[in-house]
Amino acid sequence: MTQIYLKPNVVFEPLVNQWYAWTFLLQPATCALVMKQVHLRIMESFIRAPELHRRSAAKMAGGPFLNGGRELVPAVDALIRDTRTRAAPLLALADALRELDELLAREGSGDTLSPLYARVPEPLKGFVELGYDLRGHASYRLFERLLYDSAGYLDALQSVNGFLATSDDRSFMLSTPRFPDEHMVQIRLPFRDALYDELFAARHAGAAPDLIDRLLVHAEGGAERRAALETWFTDAPPPRPPSAPARAGQPVRVRYFNHATVLVETAEFSLLTDPIVGYPLGQGDDPFTFADLPERIDYVLLTHNHQDHIVLESLLQLRHRIGTLVVPRSHGGFLQDPSIRLALEACGFERVVEVGELDSVPVPGGEIVALPFLGEHGDLHIAAKMAFALKVDGKSMLFAADSNNLQPELYQRIAQRIGRIGTLFIGMECEGAPMSWLYGALLNEPLGRQFDQNRRLNGSDCERAWPLVECFAPRQVFVYAMGAEPWLKFISSIEYAPTSLPIVESDKLIARCHAHDIQSERLYLKKEIIL
């Protein structure tokens, strides 16, 4: 056997301290707070009442309930103890962040903050700037890049768990840690390690058989895991992906992969938005998979810093194929708005380009324009969120992601600047979770229930989405980013009924588009579109 190939249905879950990895578990400050305020609390609650967690997880997939029963108690108890020792610098950082916030609330009364620098908790000294906003509220700003150089960046806690998929069922990522079993192999290497690129390239390019031996060196359980590791591979090469348009002037090919993942291919480049790539199960409704992607993806656009739009599981597997990642620029150092660029660079991505509102990135035959993105972030000041317009070869597309059209005048001004859009992709998950569902760990004091319920992570409903259609006058409107595909439930926790508000509202938009002779549909599973 001269070459081995990774089977198409091998799943790889990136983990931080056994929890499914997302960007808040990369930046040390957010990781510290999530670990202390969410992970430890869920695990300690589970130890007290495992069967309650099992029943509750079955009823409320997106709730703070660990999906398991008494059989997991020893493993969870061991992870609690391991967290308190191996992650001690992070837990100390979490305490320091709380202490600093309380210090500023207590003594930031409008006078100079200079004397407070001496009282900054030790784990944060040299990592923060203190200041007031224009209304006199004292707060701190983090020097994020330095945090990645600190004892709080514990990349030794990073690993990847691999297994053969037989169904779409996985425990919800925010509430249940992963524990290897006899069918899984856990590779304990930081995400930046180049060995992962060799492993993931074996899906389409193959690898020498000694890759298995080199992986075993870093596998939990060592050589005893050889038999399980060997099941990942085959000697049969995969089919080649369909050819892209052969020359300029040919139609642009657009492929909807799922959720907010759209592949655009021209004769000169390929572009992918918010990558989530599914795995084939051979059950009749298989998604587009890694085999349907080009060997080179010139541009990847990431719209915002939520766990269903920046999916490390897919990004790490594509790292060796990606040319340039285009990401929104954050405010810089504020806890709720961590830098996407710094997080991805720490994961080994070499070319990450930050953009602000209305910045342009040239591409062959056109440009990418970053557009303001309102809403869907619980009314928090967060800059790292962008919609993207793509203009190429006389075609134009707008990927609006979860933008909530709270101020139609904004899009009128944008339309005056960038002109008409031929194809609009708009998310309509208009009944999102309360703000605390995602950001609660960062709050020093809990938000009142009414405020929390009102400040939801909502996208546009029909009445908000329709002005975008009027503004940009597209020929096609596609509702996407609904989180409805079955393989996304472990990320989105969404399971729609015909009466679910996002379905009702998107049906209204589609009907209104049809009434105005605009092609429109709600995307699901997969679709190919020729422009």
From TrEMBL:
Cited InterPro entries: CmlA_N (IPR041141), Metallo-B-lactamas (IPR001279), RibonucZ/Hydroxyglut_hydro (IPR036866), UPF0173_UPF0282_UlaG_hydrolase (IPR050114)
Domain Diiron non-heme beta-hydroxylase N-terminal: start-end pairs: 5-237
Domain Metallo-beta-lactamase: 271-415
UniProt-listed Pfam families: CmlA_N, Lactamase_B_2
Top-level taxon in the UniProt lineage: Bacteria
PANTHER family in UniProt: UPF0173 METAL-DEPENDENT HYDROLASE MJ1163-RELATED
Entry protein name: Thioester reductase
Organism: Burkholderia cenocepacia
